[in-house]
Amino acid sequence: MKTSRPFLASLLLAAVPLAGCSSGEEPAQEVASEALPLHVTNARLVLPPVSGNPAAIYFDVANSGDRNFAVRDVSVEGAKKAELHGSMEMDGKMMMDSVGQILVEAGSTTSLESGGYHVMAFDLDPSLAAGASTMMTLTVVGGDTMTVPVEIRTAGEDR
Fold first, then answer.
1. For a tag on the chain, would you pick the N or C end, based on fewer CB atoms within 10 A?
2. Rg of the chain, C-alpha, whole Å
3. Entry pTM
């Protein structure tokens, strides 16, 4: 059986533990959807150090329900495109690529953070500025959505 590179990369990515790059994160607003038992906290968009490059979005998503959910799509107000991404090490080099979905198991929390799963936001509107906020919409398998506020931070600020 022939296996594609993206499929192998997805398998490897699923096996890579998430590595955090920050500590002492401040509490953030929690938002829950009426239709989904998902709760997003600590959502922050880190602006790129070089204008025109994509931004990264990190957050924690807890599932208080009794079944698993998979986030399959994301959109960000003020970005022309947003993608779910994952980081992994291959041949001693860190690599990043888009992923089809991110699993949030029942009764657990999934952290999207530097060095692991995260969101990349492309072609940012110049009006997105540090200290402000924007909105991010998550879509899960099955089509339910939830929209949450995302704090905007400068490059280099605590992730």
1. N
2. 15
3. 0.76
Task: Name residues whose C-beta falls within 8 Å of residue 48's C-beta, 6 or more positions apart in sequence.
Answer: 54, 55, 124, 155
Reference 135, options 27, 57, 22; nearest CA is: 57
Distance CA 26, CA 34 (A): 25
What is the rounded CA–CA span in Å between residue 14 and residue 49? Answer: 29
CA dihedral of residues 109, 146, 88, 116 (deg, nearest 10): -50
Cα–Cα distance measured from residue 95 to residue 104, given in angstroms and rounded to the nearest whole number: 23
Best CA proximity match to 110, nearest among 157, 69, 148, 67: 69
pLDDT in tens, 102-150: 999 999 999 999 999 999 999 999 999 999 999 999 999 999 999 999 9
**Number of other residues whose CB lies within 10 A of the CB of residue 72:** 16
